[in-house]
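Reposting from the mailing list since nobody answered there.

I have sequence plus structure tokens for a pair of proteins and want to know whether others read the tokens the same way I do. The first protein:
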Amino acid sequence: RPVKGSVDQKEISGDTVLLAFADYHTLRIAGLTFAGVIVFLSFILLTGKGTRITKDITTVKQNP
């Protein structure tokens, strides 16, 4: 009788392989961390470009 949570070689499928390496809590934390890093990098990227574009627009308005 197989132990609950164990993976038998005959029963391996795509979902089972994923669950064999990590539980849902670990996947959730990793996904949230990845999403947080992407949001942080996007914010930095948009802030840096936004400042540069704003300076260009004000320079054009001052020097017609």
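The second protein, same order (residues first, tokens after):
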Amino acid sequence: MSGIKESSNSSFSLKDAGFTRELSRDPALTGKVEPARVSFTSRNKYKLITAKGEKWATLTGSLRREGKVPLVGDWVAVDTGANPAIRALLKRKNLLKRGAAGGRKREGEAVPMQNIAANIDKIFILCGLDRDYNPPRIARYTVLSELCGATPIVILNKADLCDEARAREEEIKGLLPSVEVKALSAAEGDVGWIKGQINPGETICLLGSSGAGKSTLINALIGGEAQKTAAVSEALGKGRHTTTHRELFILPSGGIIIDNPGMREITLPDEALEDAEVFSIIDELARGCKFRDCKHVSEPGCSVLDAVQAGEIAREALENYRKLKGQEQ
């Protein structure tokens, strides 16, 4: 269920699904086709949200041969008649991707890519404040978000299970000073702050490990059981995979959210390493720091911060450096 209103309810419009005036001008929307948004994909069929409700469609052979395969979040031009087929992909705003799991490159080889979703405004990075808590992983998620061009927001879930919730919130704020961070408990219905981060027409992509509480959050936002949830093993602190596919939901209060299966491995794409020359300079400067384990945050005698203050190193480059160094921990 995408959470959209039935076609008989005239109050629903494609604007509720994120349709914009710019998309309406796409040249692919000519002839006997209509715009639709992909909410779910299977091997050969695509579940679409149209102005009249939901419907299933296939993909034309020509698009498949060209490798133009729709993702959840994509806008497409689809036939209006019986047995509808997707005729074209509308222009994407952006694309969220990661290095394929297990795809860490050898020397000189590119990381194989996995496309995740399209047309995203914000990415909610969900991390449980139980045994799922992992600052380096959170940092890698923010790198993926920024490469996509979406705004990352970190949600530290299960605050009711952690006595150090506020301390961990401050830790992540220190690691990622330009990113919004909030500790809360979705299971306790503490979602008012999250709703305030979602504007009408905005598309949110939800990322996090299995067991971080993504399905619980989706259900709390929708006000029903859109996604199944499962208990987390108390012995291992690991979540069972309850979300096995990507799916887009329209929220009653406005906005759109895309749920994703949990990610055990986050391999960064090659674009994340484009600042390698600047990073090597920071590595060299770090040798002059007063403390051997300096994090280059606010420590006295930090040569790297001195270089930032002097305008020799961009603060943004330092933030990216710290995120990528987190991957090595």
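Reply #1 (J.P.):
I read it the same way you do. The mean pLDDT is 84.
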